[in-house]
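Colleagues,

For the teaching module next term, I've prepared a clean inverse folding example: a structure given as tokens, and then the sequence designed for it. I'd like students to try predicting residues themselves before seeing the answer, so please don't circulate the second half yet.
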């Protein structure tokens, strides 16, 4: 068992140090390691095509933690370090993060809402906190603007809209889509956003009031107060937008629709959800709810 531990960790720590701490012979470890090398080679040969398949299915966006989660779901007993090593050998790398600019204009004379969320982005049930934001996307016809609404319980995109403008209609369309897909009557739902003029407009606040949704805003110029929505945009830009060239608004809409509905919500493994997809996380929690109620 000590030799197995050393082999599993030798990419992280010097073998000599581990052998000394675990009180085993370094030469003995190397003899054992050499005898078991052929077995590991066979296991690696089985893992490589599955790693390649997972990487391809993610459109070449997954790193070792998410690929390892895919492999474990398939029944393989494999650690992240081993997956990372095999990916390096295969020349497979996750996409790097890229910076993006904010689109918020909070220098308006409209009112602001209190921050009801206080950076607590992990509600215990769905339809408790929705987070919304706007980002920009370049097309050959000019800028397009995307508004999304996330349910922070599962990080699921429950509403979105894209247009060639940033008027209030954009965020209203995203909100209306979210309200049409989720049952929020009787909940204590909070809608949280930055202090952009669209979210402070009379039309938007009246729509929230009509739906019985509480209004919440983060502080001016503080990205951490709406970090979950900004994190989604960073993921979207890294995994999709920065790898595409869109001819026009229609092309961007088709591409983003496919990403959200066919990959992000249904398949993309999210580190904050124990490497489940948003839909899988909601299904898992819903399955456990009756058991918890019965136990109570």
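(Answer key — instructors only)
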């Amino acid at each position: 068992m000590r030799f197995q531990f050393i082999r599993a960790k030798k990419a992280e720590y010097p073998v000599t140090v581990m052998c000394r701490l675990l009180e085993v012979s370094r030469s003995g470890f190397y003899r054992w390691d050499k005898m078991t090398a052929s077995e590991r080679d066979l296991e690696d040969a089985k893992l490589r095509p599955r790693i390649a398949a997972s990487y391809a299915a993610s459109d070449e966006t997954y790193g070792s933690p998410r690929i390892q989660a895919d492999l474990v779901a398939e029944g393989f007993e494999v650690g992240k370090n081993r997956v990372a090593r095999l990916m390096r050998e295969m020349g497979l790398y996750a996409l790097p993060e890229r910076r993006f600019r904010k689109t918020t204009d909070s220098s308006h004379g409209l009112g602001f809402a209190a921050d009801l969320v206080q950076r607590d982005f992990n509600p215990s049930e769905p339809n408790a906190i929705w987070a919304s934001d706007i980002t920009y996307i370049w097309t050959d016809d000019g800028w397009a603007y995307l508004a999304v609404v996330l349910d922070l319980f599962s990080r699921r995109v429950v509403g979105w809209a894209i247009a060639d403008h940033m008027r209030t209609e954009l965020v209203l369309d995203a909100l209306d889509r979210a309200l049409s897909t989720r049952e929020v009557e009787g909940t204590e739902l909070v809608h949280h956003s930055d202090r952009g003029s669209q979210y402070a407009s009379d039309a938007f606040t009246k729509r929230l009031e009509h739906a019985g949704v509480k209004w919440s805003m983060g502080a001016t110029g503080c990205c951490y107060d709406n970090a979950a929505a900004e994190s989604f945009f960073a993921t979207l830009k890294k995994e999709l937008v920065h790898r595409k060239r869109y001819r026009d608004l229609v092309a961007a809409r088709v591409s983003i629709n496919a990403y959200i509905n066919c990959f992000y919500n249904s398949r993309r493994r999210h580190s904050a959800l124990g490497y489940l997809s948003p839909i899988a996380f909601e299904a898992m929690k819903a399955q456990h709810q009756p058991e918890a109620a019965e136990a109570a």
